């Protein structure tokens, strides 16, 4: 074996996952779990603003609806641009530097928001800068996923990438589920940080939302430094540009924008969407109780369908997901102008269905790309498609601030139909150009 049994002495000079003689499954899976742990924290940081923003006005801020939409949308915009940088980094800096360095950068938005929420006079411009800093959590995905693809053979690509992306996406639900709990008391060891006063005279420790993640990020930095290594997949910036001359790069970008773009966009905006559509009713639903459910379902299906994609092919499940997302979006359309709070149940069912099918599609696309492209190009395409889809929170947020929700959902249904047709034509139908 080219890899020794020791943790600190790993020779990856002849690494080839497709050759059992030069592939060490234990090392590959250890790399996957450490990277996934850090990716989960990265998604927590990326969606930290969406968990904090709905509470800012209750602790003394006076932000308008458009300002809140922008605040929640900016991490998506920043994450998309950062992914366009991250996508080139795996073959340049290697896994250990990429993961450890990203974990270090996560401390900026976590600590920044910890202090910002403690002072309601903090300028809006500073809040925007902190929202931009949170984008590093989204950017990391475009580096972590291609890096992980170097460690596994194609036969396990769906399982490995599905698990990493699915568990990593769980960070969206984690921060939205964790925040309502941790803001209710002083954290052990930092009780000297006094709570914020809400408008109705209650106490809220909103600074805990970012602070609670800090020790776990520090652990991630240590794990990356001690256990991670790089594999011999190297390419400079110019060499990696060849993916943009390939037709299937653009087809898969469109399809992944349907799946992860919708997942990330609706995950960021679901809380505000519930408030704006159902918040005026006397018995209005509490968005904080429901916002985490969609990302949770989408993350679970993404992780769970990885092995199924390895067995039956990713394209088939991407096609199923496209049909499901289209149908679910059309269903949800009928409950976007409610006349009674009881319609919220149907709205929620429709939204959860969209998230569920989006998760299946995410698993399918990440099985497809390693099958369609050679390994180095597959890593680049994974990074690029992830970069574009990361604009989902920004695109959804801006669209909802310009168009009515019903008009936006109609546009989504049309786009999902087109992407489903592309999946069938190029990858699923008998005689398809690239069955995957």
SSE inventory with pairings:
Blueprint: H1 25-46, H2 48-56, H3 65-86, H4 90-93, H5 95-116, H6 124-139, H7 141-149, H8 157-182, E1 196-197, E2 203-204, H9 208-211, H10 214-227, H11 247-278, H12 293-304, H13 306-312, H14 314-333, H15 344-372, H16 375-389, H17 392-402, H18 405-428
Antiparallel strand pairs: 1-2
Helix pairs in contact: 1-5, 1-6, 1-8, 1-10, 2-3, 2-8, 3-6, 3-7, 3-11, 3-16, 3-17, 5-6, 5-10, 7-8, 7-16, 8-12, 8-13, 8-15, 11-15, 11-16, 11-17, 11-18, 12-15, 13-14, 14-15, 14-18, 15-16
Give the CATH superfamily. MFS general substrate transporter like domains
Order of helices and strands: HHHHHHHHEEHHHHHHHHHH
Beta-strand segment tally: 2
Task: Tell me the span between the first and last alpha carbons.
Answer: 31 Å
The number of helical elements comes to 18
- Gyration radius over CA: 21 Å
The chain-level structural class is mainly alpha
The CATH architecture name reads Up-down Bundle
Report the β-strand fraction as a percent range: under 5%
What would CATH call the class?
Answer: Mainly Alpha
Largest sheet: 2 strands, antiparallel
Uncertain residue segments: 1-8
Tell me the domain tally.
1
Instruction: State the helical fraction.
Output: 55-70%
Shape: globular
Give me the side-by-side strand order of the main sheet.
Answer: 1-2
Mean pLDDT: 87
And the CATH topology? Growth Hormone, Chain: A
């Amino acid at each position: 074996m080219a890899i020794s049994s020791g943790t600190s002495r790993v020779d990856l000079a002849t690494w080839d996952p497709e050759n059992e003689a030069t592939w060490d499954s234990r090392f590959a899976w250890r790399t996957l779990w450490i990277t996934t742990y850090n990716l989960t924290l990265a998604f927590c940081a990326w969606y930290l603003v969406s968990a904090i923003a709905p509470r800012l006005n209750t602790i003394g801020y006076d932000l308008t609806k458009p300002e809140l939409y922008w605040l929640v949308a900016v991490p998506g915009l920043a994450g998309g641009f950062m992914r366009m940088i991250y996508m080139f980094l795996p073959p340049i800096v290697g896994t250990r530097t990429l993961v450890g360095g990203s974990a270090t950068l996560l401390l900026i938005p976590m600590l920044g928001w910890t202090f910002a929420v403690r002072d309601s006079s903090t300028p809006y411009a500073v809040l925007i800068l902190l929202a931009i800093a949170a984008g590093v959590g989204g950017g990391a995905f475009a580096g972590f996923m291609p890096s992980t693809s170097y460690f596994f053979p194609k036969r396990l690509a769906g399982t490995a990438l599905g698990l990493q992306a699915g568990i990593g996406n769980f960070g969206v639900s984690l921060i939205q589920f964790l925040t309502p709990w941790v803001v209710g008391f002083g954290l052990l060891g930092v009780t000297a940080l006094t709570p914020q006063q809400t408008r109705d005279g209650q106490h809220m420790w909103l600074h805990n939302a970012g602070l609670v993640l800090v020790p776990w990020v520090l652990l991630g930095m240590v794990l990356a430094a001690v256990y991670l290594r790089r594999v011999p997949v190297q390419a400079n910036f110019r060499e990696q540009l060849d993916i943009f001359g390939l037709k299937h790069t653009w087809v898969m970008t469109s399809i992944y924008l349907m799946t992860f773009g919708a997942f990330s966009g609706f995950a960021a905006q679901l809380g505000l969407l519930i408030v704006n559509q159902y918040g005026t009713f006397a018995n209005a639903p509490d968005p904080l109780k429901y916002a985490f459910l969609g990302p949770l379902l989408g993350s679970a299906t993404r992780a769970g369908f990885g092995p199924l994609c390895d067995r039956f092919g990713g394209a088939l499940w991407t096609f199923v997901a496209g049909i499901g997302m289209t149908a679910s979006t059309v269903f949800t359309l009928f409950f976007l102008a409610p006349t009674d709070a009881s319609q919220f149940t149907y709205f929620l069912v429709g939204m959860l269905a969209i998230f569920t099918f989006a998760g299946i599609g995410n698993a399918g696309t990440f099985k497809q790309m390693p099958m369609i492209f050679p390994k180095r190009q597959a890593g680049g395409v994974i990074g690029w498609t992830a970069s574009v889809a990361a604009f989902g929170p920004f695109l959804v947020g801006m669209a909802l601030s310009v168009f009515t929700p019903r008009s936006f959902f109609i546009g989504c249904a049309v786009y999902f139909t087109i992407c489903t047709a592309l999946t069938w034509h190029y990858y699923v139908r008998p005689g398809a150009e690239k069955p995957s």
